[in-house]
Design brief:
Blueprint: H1 8-13, H2 20-33, H3 39-49, H4 55-67, H5 72-115, H6 119-143, H7 154-170, H8 175-194
Helix pairs in contact: 2-5, 3-6, 4-5, 7-8
Length: 196
């Protein structure tokens, strides 16, 4: 469901993946860069570098990917692949996100099992948590300008962002409840705003 209609003239002239193989290679490369989280890297590559999606389209797809079951970046890759090549594109993007990274993860798991008792290895892995948090925060900040073009407007959208952050980070409300209550309210408000 697209809330923001792209300009018809620019939608056909925009860069796009050349083939399902291009999707596979691109998403493999993205997945291999994603230590601690690949969402920030996907946003940078797909929106800023390759320009396959506008910031608004990325924000919409990311919102849907967040509420679907499963890893949000996997959901997002399937949605992007489907957008351009249907089921073949979705399968190619999914395979790109999983195939080569799976081999790398299995090799790293074997290494980790061997060196898990080493305190330096454990400390290094804990340090990656800060990097992952920074990547997620940077992506959220980069997407803030896209909130201006959402149907609710910048102020109400920013208030929803703050409410979700407060509910999860400070009040420790489970994500599922926040999604149902705040997400449902945001959908209702948007529907009322768009209703004739």
């Amino acid at each position: 469901m697209q809330l923001i209609a792209p300009d018809a003239a620019t939608a056909t002239d925009r860069p796009r993946p050349q083939s399902p193989r291009d999707l596979f290679v691109s998403f493999t490369w993205l997945a291999l860069q994603g230590f601690g989280g690949v969402l920030a890297i996907v946003q940078r590559e797909v929106v800023e570098k390759k320009k396959w999606l506008t910031p608004e389209e990325f924000l919409e797809d990311w919102a849907v990917a967040q509420v679907l079951p499963g890893p949000n970046v996997i959901n997002l890759s399937v949605m992007i692949g489907d957008r351009y090549f249907g089921v073949r594109g979705a399968a190619a993007a999914l395979a790109g996100m999983l195939t080569v990274p799976l081999v790398v993860i299995l090799a790293l798991a074997v290494l980790y099992a061997h060196y898990a008792g080493n305190p330096q290895v454990a400390g290094a892995l804990r340090g990656m948590g800060a990097v992952a948090a920074g990547l997620i925060a940077a992506t959220g900040i980069k997407l803030m300008p896209a909130l201006r073009r959402l149907p609710l407007g910048f102020g109400p959208s920013l208030a929803i962002v703050a409410l979700v952050f407060a509910a999860i980070a400070w009040l420790r409300i489970p994500l599922g409840w926040v999604l149902i209550v705040v997400g449902g309210a945001a959908c209702l408000l948007t529907w009322r705003k768009l209703a004739p």
